[in-house]
Design a protein that fits this description.
Length: 629
């Protein structure tokens, strides 16, 4: 997840390791896709006879959106739990999923033969935010796990967000699924080694976390292989979980092993952050019949498919690509958030060869509470999941986490152009959280905090008086995690500050709120210029004149860097990855298992003992950032 937009979508396309023999970038295989994406095998009425019609019901990236969404997705994302939300939600989703399963199991196959159904999640089954905080507070079983188990899944891939709070919380999620008894299902990922995390290793020993699984339906054996993005260590907090990157080789080895066991229908469910990464992987695959992608949140739909108002299809459903043996492979995904059930209906002959897809039945099915396709809410899920989560969201409005002696300024134009006391507070919270987690994650305690102004989103002044838990989500709404960059060279830190003030006096999301240092900059001097898409610095910038740590250590004097040791810095993982063209890309960093919202709330409650004092956070800030000329 990154800032200023949801983690899902085309703005965050990534190139990942895909090579069969090593690491191969997306761009290197793009040429191999020419002519491979388009219509699938002909829905032939002649030729090999259909022996099995397989319906694959799939979901992915539901990310704790348990209580539904509005019909227009262009809103500001403010959480307003409301029974009248017209689309999505776990309770409606359950009803629709079960209806589609019954139809697939009992309906007459259009092409004859048997029918079977497989139900799969692509992962990212929960996400940091006010809804998931209900599960954290409630404990095992998590509400998200209860909702997912109600679907009767056959398997779930393991996404990056499963590790956002560290491996132990993921283990609690697995325990939550297991506690549901008949609703339990395995978690599959062939390129993760969880043996270094005891809480997860026990589930691997039990076969709950595994590379593959075999689903038995109507006398058929359907193999499911899982893959997780190789970017996992830099976009989440897997700690001692090892991630293998040679995805094609791993998938092919697993497919070969399943084939030797007599499994002749194989589904790959891969959480690679972008459907184009799945499409780039297919030309290297052998023996995989179907690919379900996850992590990108693309909307795939054909003309005539009913979408939630405000949603727009990017491409058709499903996509098709050609594998290493020249076979056409369907590739599908959904946009997540409990908004659509993916329904991929495939035809196989008696030898297990894929003949094609049912074009009429294969589609994303929207989850509607209004209109002719509306479904009622599943009573059990409504009672045991949605209702308590809605109650928790209401309680966040009423939960006071601190009392402030001073108004806290989060006005958009201010936090993006100058120091504010709310900016100081959030930057201090990053340092505080990084220091508390340093030993657990094996990083040095940070001495500097960096918060980009674009990540502060309440666009208001919080009046003096009570600060609520919901206020902390309004200020820090993104699922960005606190990250520690252990060694930031002093010149890199200077360039980082230059980037932060490059647009001044105009407002910009890259403006930097700081902790642990004070600096001055001269607006009349040359500003840094960067290539926004690559982060390359085109003009270095000469604005930053003096930088001094809180302990008196001088890092920059009169525009010149003072030689010395690098500085450990706490920031959010969006910035640590080079977001806003910050010059941190390429430096090692470690997410430390808490969101920046969690850091802010924890700092208010524990670090400041529930009291924001005017002496510490005066109106206008305490002079950490000084503009001259």
């Amino acid at each position: 997840m990154t800032q200023d937009m949801p983690s899902r979508g085309s703005a965050f396309r990534r190139t990942i390791a895909l090579g069969a023999a090593g690491v191969l970038g997306l761009g290197a295989v793009a040429a191999g896709l020419v002519g491979t994406v388009g219509a699938g095998p002909a829905a032939a009425d002649s030729g090999p006879r259909t022996d099995l019609t397989l319906t694959v019901l799939h979901t992915n990236d539901d990310e704790s959106q348990l209580v539904g969404v509005d019909g227009d997705t262009d809103g500001d994302g403010t959480i307003e739990p409301d029974e009248t939300r017209a689309y999505g939600g776990a309770a409606r989703y359950t009803t629709l999923w079960q209806q589609l399963r019954r139809q697939a199991e009992t309906g007459r196959p259009a092409q004859g033969g048997k029918r079977a159904v497989v139900s799969i999640s692509g992962g990212d089954n929960y996400l940091a935010g006010p809804e998931f905080s209900a599960s954290i507070e409630h404990g095992v079983p998590f509400y998200d796990a209860l909702a997912l188990s109600r679907l009767g899944l056959d398997a779930s891939a393991i996404g990056n967000h499963e590790f956002d709070f560290g491996p132990d919380v993921f283990a609690d999620f697995v325990a939550s699924v297991r506690s549901t008894g008949g609703g339990s299902f395995p978690f599959v990922s062939a390129n993760l080694d969880v043996s270094g995390e005891p809480a997860l290793a026990k589930y691997a020993d039990q076969g709950v976390i595994r590379a593959t699984t075999v689903v038995r339906e109507r006398g058929e054996r359907i193999g499911v292989i899982g893959l997780t993005t190789p970017e996992l260590p830099t976009i989440s907090s897997p700690r001692n979980v090892r991630v293998r990157t040679e995805l094609a080789r791993i998938a092919n080895d697993e497919a070969s092993a399943l084939t030797r066991q007599g499994v002749d229908k194989i589904i790959l469910v891969s959480h690679l952050q972008d459907i184009d990464n799945e499409l780039a992987l297919v030309p290297q695959l052998r023996g995989v019949d179907v690919v379900l992608g996850a992590g990108g949140g693309e909307i795939l739909a054909d003309s005539g498919d009913r979408l939630i108002p405000g949603d727009r299809a990017e491409r058709g459903y499903p996509l098709w690509a050609t594998d290493a043996d020249g076979r056409r492979v369907p590739v599908a995904t959904t946009t997540g958030n409990y908004k659509y059930v993916g329904q991929l209906v495939l035809r196989f002959d008696r030898a297990g060869r894929l003949l094609g897809a049912d074009d009429e039945q294969s589609r994303p099915v929207r989850v509607a509470g209004a209109g002719t396709d509306a479904v009622v809410k599943d009573a059990w899920t409504r009672t045991h999941v949605e209702a308590p989560v809605e109650s928790h969201l209401a309680s966040l409005r009423e939960t006071v986490v601190a009392d402030s002696e001073v108004p806290l300024n989060g006005v958009r134009s201010d936090v993006r152009s100058k120091e504010t006391n709310l900016g100081d507070l959030v930057a201090d919270a990053l340092v505080w959280a990084g220091a508390r987690k340093a030993a657990e994650y094996g990083v040095p305690a940070p001495v500097v905090g960096i918060q980009n102004g674009g990540g502060l989103r309440n666009d208001a002044v919080i009046p003096a008086g009570p600060v609520t838990a919901l206020d902390t989500y309004d200020v820090a709404p993104f699922a960005n995690f606190v990250a520690v960059v252990p060694e930031v060279p002093r010149d890199t830190l200077r360039r980082l500050l230059e980037r932060g003030v490059a647009a001044a006096p105009s407002a910009a999301g890259a403006f930097i709120q700081v902790s642990g240092l004070a600096f001055t900059y001269d607006v009349s001097r040359k500003a840094q210029v960067v290539n926004e898409s690559t982060g390359e610095i085109l003009t270095p910038g000469e604005r930053v004149r003096d930088v001094v740590l809180d302990d008196g250590t001088v890092l920059v004097r009169d525009g010149q860097v003072v030689d010395g040791a690098p500085v450990p810095v706490a920031t959010n993982d969006f910035s640590a990855r080079g977001g806003d063209a910050y010059p941190l890309k390429g430096l090692d960093f470690t997410p430390v298992g808490t969101t920046y919202q969690g850091a802010l709330r924890g700092y208010l409650e524990e670090g400041l003992s529930g009291k924001v004092r005017a002496a510490d956070y005066p109106v206008g800030g305490e002079g950490r950032i000084t503009a001259t000329n």
